[in-house]
Amino acid sequence: MQQGDSLTQFIIEEQRKLPHATGELTLLLSDIARACKAISQSVKQGALAGLLGSVGDENVQGEVQQKLDVLSNEIMIDALGKTGHLAAMASEENEDIIPIASQYPKGKYLICFDPLDGSSNININMCVGTIFSILRCPEGVENPTAKDFLQPGTEQVCAGFCVYGPSTTMVLTTGNGVNGFTLDPGVGEFLLSHPNIRIPEDCQEFAINMSNMRFWEPPVRRYIEECLQGKEGPRGKDFNMRWIASFVAEVYRILTRGGIWSYPIDDKLKAKNLAGRLRLMYEANPMGFIVEQAGGLISTGREPVLEIQPESIHQRVPLVLGSKNEVERFVQYHKEWDAHQQ
Q: Which domains does the chain show, CATH number per domain?
């Protein structure tokens, strides 16, 4: 594939590499792309269409729903639920899985999605995005339940996200590397703009919510304090810090120039009986698949994210991801601390 080729051309070429491919995944990805174009347009209209602000309700996560959260969720469900490529859906905004209506045909895939990640940034005109993870529906299952979604990240068929910023860009993996496609508004098509994305193994940039520092575990504090000491410290080099508070924007930055990002477990989360901040099924797993396909690494700090056996659709996990050597160091500090506690 060459830079400038369309997303449609790309996924057709990928399909041709698989002799037994039916084309169903290709059509599903086309449906997702169409939904992302519609969400992108709604995000751009913002206040002009009366789409900013909250609706006054909370979602299943206990988070205040923004108007664009609700609209984006409706767009995804409407675009994907009638095409015959899915057996069921799961969304951050819905407590239970979303079945395919009986009047529509069912396909062989399941999808988990966050329709609008980073929606707290909408009112300040910052980047937001859509994240999705595609799984196979277990063979012989005609009416999937939540249990059928509970597959480890290693079982993902495809994962991607679309970031709505100065440009609209979709990043995608089907297990054969990572590619980015930018929406050309003139032709209404995603075009290959970032072929074969690779994350550098080393970096000098970290991203973490420093306001939580007093709640961190010692290995996290050790890692960040060493970064802050710069050339004079044990790392022997200066680090820059970034924090956007939009997961899609953070991961996109790491994909394009490297870095390490973390939202670790801390005492504040534990006090709320939360195992982490990010959701495993539709945030951590798809981003982890993408990051590792690009040569990076993802972990909870103590175990590989993609190997976790999910227990629920909305399960939360602590996360660290990014440049391989930095994530390995972060994990090593946890191993040393845990060994010291035994």
A: 7-194 (3.30.540.10), 205-341 (3.40.190.80)
